Automatic annotation (TrEMBL):
Keywords: Acyltransferase, Transferase. SMART domains: PlsC (SM00563). It comes from the Bacteria. The keyword Nucleus does not apply. GO terms for biological process: phosphatidic acid biosynthetic process. It comes from Nocardioides szechwanensis. Residues 221-249 are annotated as: Disordered. The keyword Acyltransferase applies. This is 1-acyl-sn-glycerol-3-phosphate acyltransferase.
């Protein structure tokens, strides 16, 4: 059987728009820092050039904007398709974010992410699949898949302080709250040609999750902070069931 490291191909897939991706970041940082005490740790861990996957835990509604604004390089983040409506949707589109349907296979989102990486860009992904405690209990395989296909290093990102303890799913931190973004050491999985078997992706995802858990524990010790705990009862988002590390789906 012929193996091909370039599958799936992305030649015909356009790069996500970059019209506003870089221009607005300095102003957005200024706005955020007027309201919050944002502290970025380990930004030097993100390679200055070449493809990179930023894999972050997910606890609050502002995690995505923070990642896009405060990462040392512009980020094309996989963003739930429900956000791409009206003015917000147009803004997300022109700032280069990638719409993702979390409940069905979404080959277009996959190809757009691969296109960004093959063009030497940065893709952001939240492996938990939804907001929650941020403890990485559920961990989808997408980050590992992107790494196996492209050979891009994965940089763990630990979000702390983006939701208050007991805070609702859409709640914002209190004004003046301290927010931490902790970038961990890059983790590289050996690039693997097609066909990539589910077991190989599962094994790689388990290794990536273990590494992110180590970075999470280290970040909590370094910052002296804690995670906010689970969302209030009844506020958990429907959980995408497929592609979860440690399950058979």
């Amino acid at each position: 059987m012929r193996v091909d490291i370039e599958l799936p191909r992305t030649d015909a897939t356009p790069h996500p728009p970059r019209f506003m991706l870089e221009k607005l970041r300095p102003f957005a940082r200024w706005l955020f820092r007027r309201r919050y005490d944002v502290r970025v740790h380990g930004a030097e861990q993100v390679p200055a050039t070449g493809p990179v996957i930023l894999a972050a835990n997910h606890i609050g509604v502002i995690d995505g904007p923070l990642l896009a604004i405060f990462a040392p390089r512009p980020v094309h983040a996989l963003t739930k398709i429900e956000m791409f409506r009206g003015r917000l949707g147009r803004f997300l589109h022109y700032s280069g974010q990638i719409p993702l349907d979390r409940y069905v296979a979404d080959p277009q989102a996959v190809k757009q992410g691969l296109r960004v990486l093959r063009d030497g860009g940065v893709v952001g992904i939240f492996p938990e699949g939804h907001r929650g405690a941020g403890e990485l209990e559920r961990f989808h395989r997408g980050a590992a898949y992107f790494a196996l296909v492209t050979g891009a290093p994965v940089v763990p990102v630990i979000m702390i302080g983006t939701r208050e303890p007991g805070g609702h799913t859409g709640s914002l931190p209190n004004r003046g709250a301290r927010i931490e973004l902790v970038f961990g050491r890059p983790f590289t999985l050996e690039q693997q040609p097609w066909p990539r078997r589910r077991g190989d992706v599962e094994s790689a995802s388990l290794r990536l999750r273990d590494r992110m858990l180590d970075d999470l524990r280290e970040a909590l010790v370094t910052t002296g902070r804690s995670l906010p705990g689970p969302l209030p009862s009844g506020e958990q988002e429907p959980d995408p069931s497929g592609g979860v590390t440690g399950t058979t789906t």
